[in-house]
Design brief:
A hairpin with a 5-residue loop joins strand 8 (about 85-90) and strand 9. The protein is built from three helices and eleven strands; from the N terminus they run αβββββββαββββα. The relative contact order is 0.22. By secondary structure, the protein is α+β, with helices and mostly antiparallel strands. The strands form five sheets. The protein has a three-stranded antiparallel sheet with strand order 8-9-10. The chain has a two-stranded antiparallel ribbon with strand order 1-2. Strands 3-11 form a two-stranded antiparallel sheet. It has a single domain (about 1-125), classed as 4-Layer Sandwich (Phosphatase 2c, domain 1), CATH 3.60.40. About 20% of the residues lie in helices and about 35% in strands.
Amino acid sequence: MKEAFKEVDKTLKESKIDARYRYFLIFSFSGSTCVAVLMIKNKAFIANIGDSRCILITNNTCKQLTIDHKPSVLEEKVRIIGCGGVVSQAVISNGKRFGPKRVWMRDRTGPGLAMSRSIGDTAAKRIGVISDPGNSI
């Protein structure tokens, strides 16, 4: 499944899909989260990127089967900072911070991504956002 996610990310980057928003006409701010479930007989293999979740509902119970990839998670934050990114909340005009922790370039012009892994987001790839789903179940 890791190879499939990697291939989708590569294919998207090489495609002629126009993300419509370019940062200095070089990097795309467009991307996506993803959840994939592969069923083989009675066994499920699950992988995710970003904050899309796989939930199992049985009878009257719900169980989250994936873990969100958020920049506030220490391992994710360390990788992003190590790649030159910044992890911080958004700041409004009066200087007050709000919302979830986000991934930013050092100059804070973008992308303001509220997840630490995605498919696409070529600008964010330069600052530590990856398309690897990590350890899947």
